[in-house]
Amino acid sequence: MQATRAVLAVDCRLARSLALVSQRRAHHRPSLPGGRAFDELAGGPDPVEVAEAAERCAEALVRRSGPDDQAVVQRLVHLADTEGLETLAELWAKTPADTIGGSLWRLYLLRALVHNSPERAAAEFAAGRSRAGAAEVVAGVVDPPGPDEVRRLVDEILTGVATADFADALFRAAAFAHVLAIGRSHLHEAPQEAGRIATLSEQLLHAGRLELDGDLGPAR
Questions:
Q1: CB 101 within 8 A of CB 109
Q2: Whose CB has fewer CB within 10 Å in the chain, the N or C terminal residue?
Q3: What is the pLDDT of residues 59-96, one digit of tens each?
């Protein structure tokens, strides 16, 4: 398990460092570059290397953790808290939804949605669960669906990435997002917001099916 932690930490730091270095260089390039500037650009981080490091990080989180190492499990659940959601966005936000990194990003995005507005999420879950059919059962029945309960539920779903199988976590997240989308559509006049959550649900569901078939892999 020490090797697991080392791989996870190195790959995450590598991907983050490369992304930040690339960003800084992009912001500080002179408008009229000379030969030296072109030399610096040539020695800059390769975008392919950045993407590969980010995917290694995602694979380490999903494939190399396990229920016997609770420290790694807790780090996975709270990664957005410790590293910042912006850092995770640098790694995976532009990654396709049908990849490990892309689906992992969407799980953290769903968690952030709930943790940032737990009262609203609880109200939406309560409004949506009576209209979502079996989706509530798949996500996990919450009674009563208060702010603390929906926070625990979304953390429990993310814990399943390490302690259960990844497909199960993706299916539960998809069902949870589906209930939220229905509730948001019912409570608020915000069809675009509800539509975005519904799209997130569909993407997670598709990723879960790919995982079951053994076809969910790194970005190509």
A1: no
A2: C
A3: 888 876 566 667 778 888 998 998 889 889 988 999 99
Which residues have C-beta within 8 Å of that of residue 30, sequence separation ≥ 6? 37
> In Å, how far from its chain's centre is CA 186?
26
CA distance to 142, 154, 176, per residue, from 148 (Å): 10, 10, 15
Verify cis geometry, omega within 30 degrees of 0, for the bond prior to 145: no
Whole-prediction pTM value?
0.79
User: What pLDDT sits at residue 36?
Assistant: 44
- Main-chain phi, psi angles of 99, to 5 degrees: -130, 170
pLDDT value of position 118: 95
Contact 178, 124 (CB under 8 A): no
- CA 56 to chain CA centroid, Å, is 15
- Cross-strand pairs, 99: 217
Let me know: does 165 contact 202? Beta carbons within 8 Å.
no
Q: How confident is the model at residue 39 (pLDDT cuts 50, 70, 90)?
A: very low
Q: 47-63 and 147-163 helices cross at what angle (nearest 10)?
A: 100
The amino acid present at 125, given as its one-letter code, is: F
| Angle, helix 70-77 to helix 2-27, in steps of 10 degrees | 30
Rounded to whole angstroms, how far apart are CA atoms 166 and 181? 22
Task: Tell me if 171 sits within 8 A of 138, measured CB to CB.
Answer: yes
